[in-house]
């Protein structure tokens, strides 16, 4: 059997954890620059607010609804996610972290009733040690476990735990016949349209399809989904996470940036962030693409530029990445354009030490990355950096976060105090 643990309304729950007055209130968490809804409390969902709704369309009714907004605090969410995942791993035979708020677990052997008791102990353990609510679905395959977890979240009578084998006879048949095929894990967009063109409109239709015909028409991935819906575990737990193939750091700007020099400063910051992520993963990059673009939704001329760079030597050091990124993009930027986005995509990733260099052939930069990391670990994440990023002066490309909650768990200066 496989269990899927999902933290309920994760971002919203993280906000309410340290601000109890938000409990029971309609709350939305907004994307970068306070743009669109990326998380909702149950009360906000009841108002009909959808994922992706822009805040400017909700603002007029917010006071009447009692709607509260918070800016995304990704540092807080990542820290709480790590605490939850480490805690869950102690109580299972195996774990695959699927996303920031979900993971698959291998439960202990036992009867359905015993596994449900194990799941309820997990719920209580997470609630006691971290303070976040979780829902758990248990089934013979990952795809079925996803369906069971969604059922546990939506049916309050389940107490947040559903075991596939404990459902009344015929329940899953009726549910799968009622739910559209887009409710299946990994089925959306063009794939869903192609399935519907074949007459596969519900989960039950996909479950009853010929898996071999599905493989020939689509791929082995979809064949595995059919097998999983029938209870055969065709997608195993992956306890070893594959290393990243690319690292992307990009951002949309709160307001247009007209000056190419300022766009270059933004790219320098993104390159430093990419170098830090490379070091954290223990990887080096052999090439990268740096880019900047205007918005297609704004009046005026459009300008989308990019430059592809192969580094003389693979690296994760900030200085060569920053210098190469700025030098590659600067000649392509134009004065007077309303740039609204920029970023850097690092590719050809390899483990540190996997690409030996002949001594003296290529001049190596001073190893500043580890020194910067050590200082920032000790004194705070933004203590030391290169260039503009190290001055702590306001930057026009920084996120607009009007309602950012404190860094309750990652900053000594913002820890909760008890009087």
Give an account of the 3D structure.
The chain has 419 residues and is of the alpha+beta class. It has three domains: 9-73, MutS, DNA mismatch repair protein, domain I (3-Layer(aba) Sandwich), CATH 3.40.1170; 77-230, 5' to 3' exonuclease, C-terminal subdomain (DNA polymerase, domain 1, Orthogonal Bundle), CATH 1.10.150.20; 247-354 and 364-390, DNA polymerase, Y-family, little finger domain (Dna Ligase, domain 1). Helices cover 37% and strands 20% of the residues. The chain is built from 14 helices and twelve strands. The protein has helices spanning 10-18, 42-46, 55-65, 74-89, 112-129, 142-154, 171-178, 189-197, 203-207, 211-217, 220-229, 260-281, 318-329, 369-379; strands at residues 2-7, 27-30, 37-40, 68-71, 95-99, 102-105, 134-139, 161-163, 247-257, 283-294, 304-315, 339-351. The strands form three sheets. Strands 5-6-1-7-8 form a five-stranded mixed β-sheet. A four-stranded antiparallel β-sheet has the order 9-12-10-11, with helices on one face. Strands 3-2-4 form a three-stranded mixed β-sheet. Strand 7 (134-139), helix 6 (142-154) and strand 8 (161-163) form a beta-alpha-beta unit. The model has no long low-confidence stretch (mean pLDDT 85).
